[in-house]
Task: structure prediction
Amino acid sequence: MGARLLLAVLLLLAMAVVSLFVGVGTVTPARLLAEGPEGPAMQLLLVSRLPRTIAVLLAGMAIGVAGLLMQLLARNRFVEPSTAGTAESASLGLLAVMVLAPEAPILVKMLVAAGFALAGTALFLAILRQVPLRSVLMVPLLGLMLGGVIEAVTTFLAYRMDLLQSVNAWTAGDFSGVLEGRYELLWVAFALTVLAWFAADRFTVAGMGEDVATSLGLDHRRVLAMGLFIVAMVTATVVVTVGMVPFFGLVVPNLVAMAMGDHARRAIPWIAVLGGMLLLACDMLGRVIRFPYEIPVGTIVGVVGAALFLALLFRRQARLG
Amino acid sequence: MTAARDPRLVLAVLGALALGSAALFMTWGVNGAWGFALPFRAAKLATMLLVAHAVAVSTVLFQTATGNRILTPAVMGFDQLYVLVQTVLVFALGASAFAGLDRRLLFAGEVAAMIAFSFLLHAALFGGARRSLHLLVLGGVVLGVLFRSLAGFLQRIIDPNEFAFLQDRFFASFNSPHHGLLAIAAAMALAASLLGWRALRRWDVLSLGREVSITLGLDHRREVTRILVMVAMLVSVSTALVGPVTFLGLLVANLAHAVMPSFRHAHLLPAAFLLAVICLAGGQAVLEHGFGFDTSLRVIIDFLGGILFIALLVRGKVR
Amino acid sequence: MIEAIGVSKRYGETVVVDGVTLRLPRGGVTAIIGPNGAGKSSLLSMIARLLPMSAGQVRVDGLDVARTPGAVLAKRLSILRQDNHLPARLTVRDLVAFGRYPHSGGRPTREDAAHVERALRYLALEGLAERFLDELSGGQRQRAFVAMVLAQDTDYVLLDEPLNSLDMQHAVAMMRLVRRAAEELGKTVVLVLHDLNFASCHADHIVAMRDGRVLMQGSPAAIMTPEAIAAIYDVEATVHEIGGRLIAAYFA
Result:
């Protein structure tokens, strides 16, 4: 770990501290001291602000790294959970649980959503195998359209079941509902992120293609399965707890790759830190920009993410000629 | 396949089906309450006809001008752009001032903004270096997401109470179409058709691509410009009436090319229009009265359109 | 007469065509030759107004191509480019009929129909007239496009590498056709050719380009010398007279 990364981590922590004091209810260090540990400010801090800040950081890190894994495994820079049908499938899975077993504990909901996410991603990969790939851009295009089709199914079913409100709530990423006791699943995503870091070299090798990986003695299928499992679990966890965060997993790894190349083990810490930072910045922006109302982070990321995606798209093309 | 069907026969069959769909939509499930149902449904049908016209014509022409079967104005984010333009206007003028303005004046302003933006977009995407079609489509799709997110963002910034009021009045959807704009929309559709009547042969030449059409003496740039203006107007009409319908255009334009044994716009345009009428009026009638689903038509169109899009990509129809 | 005066094409810093001045008189077959990247196709495209010029002027029979309405030029000059991919699904006859568009404005008369039939016959396409273009081989499609250009019935016909997707037999047939069009129909044909020997055998006049400029021009006899070929292509060649024609050998 270089000094620069350490600096970045410190900056991230500083942002996290600031985040604790931003919001509708007034929480200031002065009030905390004045009211003591049982005061309302401390309560607000512990029940809402702290969980929220942690949730944003965990989600930002996990989505960024999951995006990188997908890009390595699909060998395509423009793939991430929302451009491969993964996030939409997780959302459909969530709907399925809500219809069939509304009382199921959140862990079960998450697992079902992960199962759907896995199936949706597998479907996407199966379609990809059918396609004579003429350009790298076709992959995200197919994924976006597949996501749209799955979303149409979800909307249709949700409408029939009168669940459209809840579906809309979890499709737009939003941290304002995060309270103590309702975000802890994200630690699972974090654990998976750490796992991805440990296995980083394997993913890098797998990213060089099946032939290279095999000749280097790697079980390509197993690495692929593990990567997909991590991606599906992370996506499902994030969708279940906070909702969809479009293009985030695409933008963060690409920004990091521009600065330091594609070596996964070196890139992952940076992606995690930058992902946490960027998502926290978007979330804080949403809290202050239309004070006292909140703008969901999904809306802000939609703007920022789509704009950065476009910039990447046309910048790349300009460089390739 | 080569044994040519007669285009006029195909048109006649499609026309009969469209008429049948419209009749079905008007009469199915009216239980005696004719006095109430007929005017109500007639307004809805008129809206559908105008949307069918706007979507079909704008998509077929856009595909002719850009020389492919997968780009459509809606896929390129034009619909979302209209919603964004409208939101920006509300945002800039303030909701109360916006609500006080003449609806038609406002619409004219929005159309003008759409035309300006579509030129910017066209210059940015098609001007300069020759770009791959995949880049254009992907760029367009992401641009659509960007427009939608920006509009959503601005809508959040506008005072939520005020916005709730505005949403009802100004942002149309299939469920709550804007009948207030029917007259002006009909006038624009008529004007577009009259203008287009003289250009049908030129559009046939245009579909041969830029170089061949220039060789044959067509002023290619002017023709594409005209089409862009028409597309911007027609997309404004359809989005103002019922909100964005992403895949209807893709669906009917490709179906028209598939069923019509002719490349002539004199055949393709009416075919696409009739197919759109069948989709909208027939689809709505069957869904509403056959299955008791009242407002899912658009979702079903998106579902089918998305699958068609994937099929077009997979079958390598996109170069 | 086609006149190019100081014609240039630049893309940013890159100069593709560099101040070309050229006079091509009416009648006969002119071949433009030169190595890859010499600017041959760009020059041809600029003459036919498909590509805007960075500088200079092109006149066809005194008409400035940049200012003359496209419809007027389309009755005097036609061009066929290399890659003819059509988005529309047409039959051969439909395509050839489009060649009459400059004359009929899309409302074909009996005379137009006669032109179409003649063009189909000229390229031996009668049997394929009702087939769709995407059902044809590359060579057949190429012939269909040439038929369209003939149906357009212009004095000047520009062809950009017309032999590109043709096998040996069809390449020779195409060049014979070009000669016939020049001799029987009085067309002025300007074509870009890759193969020096085809130019030598079928052209009346050869223009050699290199690095965006016209290096030399003249009759085949003037261009078909070892010195000239070395200057144009940087290749050592020997020139032989075979059956009354000059053939360059540069394969070994």
Remarks:
- The mean pLDDT of chain C is 90.
- Chain C has ten helices and twelve strands.
- The first helix of chain C runs from residue 40 to 47.
- Chain C has one domain: 2-249.
